[in-house]
Amino acid sequence: MSLLITNATLVDGRLVDIQIVGDQITSVHPSGEAVGSTDEVLDVHGQLVIPGLVDLHTHLREPGREDSETVASGSAAAVRGGYTALSAMANTFPVADTAGVVEQIYRLGQSAGLCDVFPIGAVTEGLEGKKLTELVAMNESAAKVRVFSDDGKCVFDPLIMRRALEYVKSFDGVISQHAQEPRLTEGAQMNEGEISSRLGLTGWPAIAEEAIIARDILLAEHVGSRLHIAHLTTAGGVDLVRWAKARGVRVTAEVTPHHLLLTDEAVVGYDAVYKVNPPLRTHADVLALRAGLADGTIDIVATDHAPHPSEDKDCEWNAAAFGMLGLETALSVVVKTMIESKLMSWSDLVDRMSIAPAKIGGYARHGSEIDKGSIANLTVVDAKRNWTVDRERLASKSKNTPFHAMELPAVVTYTIFNGAIVCANGIVREVA
Fold first, then answer.
1. Which backbone phi and psi does 274 adopt, to 5 degrees?
2. What angle do CA 337, 82, 323 make, to 5 degrees?
3. Residue 304 belongs to domain spanning
4. Residue 403 domain flag
5. Are residues 170 and 125 located together in one domain of the fold?
6. pLDDT tens profile 45-82
7. Please, are residues 73 and 104 in contact by the beta-carbon 8 Å criterion?
8. Do residues 15 and 37 both lie within one domain?
9. pTM for this structure?
């Protein structure tokens, strides 16, 4: 099959037609120049066409919590949000800590057929922090796992963390750390500060995140291995990553859309939709995160998409689960916080949400410039339109979005995966 995308605007301002045959871009030329016959023409009327988005941090819940999300429903949410590749976190039931489980998740992604699903393997067995998993076996499996994380829990034992960094170095893998010192966060419910004191909720100090980041930067430097800091939330954490990069440490970091926009002030009404791990921080932290993303200290945006059924969120604060949805709103929130504020350009956004995460994960078919010979994983965005988030219309099986009823900029109109349109104006293609 062949597809011709006409009147496409690239981030450099060029108005082009993009010819796709099979899963490959065969030509990119100025709009209106004659081409051969094609099976389908998609006129995008000057909308932006960018490389498909890549998420390095998604919770798809399958196997084990299919009431929250499945690989299929999460993939549908992803393509509605413009994503063509996801990294599925290991905190499933059973935990993705063996070659067998990661291969199961990988095959579920292939069956869904909407985007690539790359499993992330657990660092420790059962996420218990006591014994390393068979990291090499997961890397050598059909899933070819490159990124490992106990996300949801911190790899708190420094010896285990060191050994994990040493093992993945042999195949240039990455350890993604959930930076949370457990002794400093026992019973923690929200950011530690004036608001937590006023609300009577146990505080979650910034130092609990920063202490682990500092330790692991030093371990990564000592080993010479690749460290990735998941969901960075504090100004001090940004400073630590900036310092590490100046020293040449092989460290990368991510920030979530919700930490770029929301602050701990949202918790005042005790609405558990705002309960998230790590917690929403202060306005000063948000400004530091935005600055860090803009100057490249923070490498990527990752959603930390964390679906939960209503019974786990529509309850009193202390009993509620941590987590928020993110896949369908991420691009718009980044546009709102970073592009409308003129902190970043669309070219910067493409780097932070497609090119850089694909590079970190080693996803060779994603994050490429739109050019002849590239794989046709693409997202079409109407940057001039706004939309209002309606949790009841989301593709995810869960509805715990903190952005319900919020008007956001930029509408994803089409998502193209391996040369095929998998989502058109919010309607997801049915896969046989």
1. -95, 5
2. 65
3. 51-361
4. no
5. yes
6. 989 999 999 999 999 999 999 999 999 999 999 999 99
7. no
8. yes
9. 0.97
Q: How far is CA 283 from the centre of its chain?
A: 22
Query: Which runs of consecutive H residues, i.e. helices, occur in 317-417?
Result: 330-334, 346-350, 356-361
Rounded mean pLDDT, 230-236: 98
Q: What are the tens digits of pLDDT across the range 107-140? A: 999 999 999 999 999 999 999 999 999 999 999 9
Q: Supply the CATH number for residue 199's domain.
A: 3.20.20.140
Q: Which of 55, 304, 348, 351 is catalytic?
A: 304
- Phi/psi for 96 (5° steps) reads -80, 70
Task: Assess whether pLDDT exceeds 80 at residue 431.
Answer: no
- DSSP 8-state code for residue 121: B
Number of domains in the chain: 2
The encoded tokens of residue 194 equal 């004036």
Cβ partners under 8 Å of residue 136, min gap 6: 167, 170, 171
Q: Give the pLDDT score at 432.
A: 52
Residue range 238-259, pLDDT digits in tens: 999 999 999 999 999 999 999 9
Q: Is 371 a catalytic residue?
A: no
- Average pLDDT of the segment spanning 281-310: 98
Contact 217, 249 (CB under 8 A): yes
Count of alpha carbons within 13 Å of 105, Cβ hemisphere only?
Answer: 38
DSSP letters, 6-72, are: EEEEPTTS-EEEEEEETTEEEEEEETT------SEEEE-TT-EEEEPEEEEEE---TTT-TTT--HH
Rg of the chain on CA atoms, in Å: 21
pLDDT in tens, 176-192: 999 999 999 999 999 99
Whether residue 159 is contained in a domain is answered as yes
280 and 304 assigned to the same domain: yes
